Amino acid sequence: MTNNPKKIIGKVLWVYPNSEGDGGIPNGMALLAGCLKDAGFETKCFDTTFLNSPPLTHFYRAMHGGYMPADHEDYWGGWKPELVEKTPQLLEETIEDFRPDLIAEFLLKRKVCERHE
């Protein structure tokens, strides 16, 4: 029996412009990416979570064991303030390397409840 991999019918690049510094991918995006993969699409995510500021949430969660270990420096290199300015260039390079058929931006709206007296 041969291992016949599924034919890739297209590529989707998710852009997740996370400026809050919260680590992790939103559930909705993860579910949609899984559905696309099942349908034969290759997916990739351009996540700005650790580009805007030092990955403090990454380090805090590491102290408490609340995440799967990952080395962001392997992917982006060590965090420097210049990374914020390089974000457009990094996105362009990702698009050129991955060559997606579709670029999808995932926005997360946070609802803040206020209590009025």
Please render the helix and strand layout as text.
Layout: E1 10-16, H1 27-38, E2 41-47, H2 56-64, H3 72-76, H4 82-98, E3 102-105
Parallel strand pairs: 1-2, 1-3
Q: Strand order across the biggest sheet? A: 2-1-3
Low-confidence stretches: none
> Quaternary state, please?
single chain
| First-to-last CA distance | 70 Å
How many E-type strands?
3
One letter per element, helices H and strands E, the order comes to EHEHHHE
* Coarse shape: globular
- SS class: alpha/beta
Q: Helical proportion?
A: 25-40%
**Number of discrete domains:** 1
Mean pLDDT: 77
Report the β-strand fraction as a percent range: 15-25%
Task: Describe the overall structure.
With 117 residues, the chain is α/β, with parallel strands linked by helices. The chain has one domain (10-105). It is 37% helix and 15% strand. It has four helices and three strands; from the N terminus they run βαβαααβ. The chain is globular and about 40 Å long. It starts with 9 loop residues before the first strand and ends in a 12-residue tail after the last strand.
Quick structural gist:
By secondary structure, the chain is an alpha/beta fold. It has helices spanning 27-38, 56-64, 72-76, 82-98; strands spanning 10-16, 41-47, 102-105. It has a three-stranded parallel sheet with strand order 2-1-3, with helices on both faces.
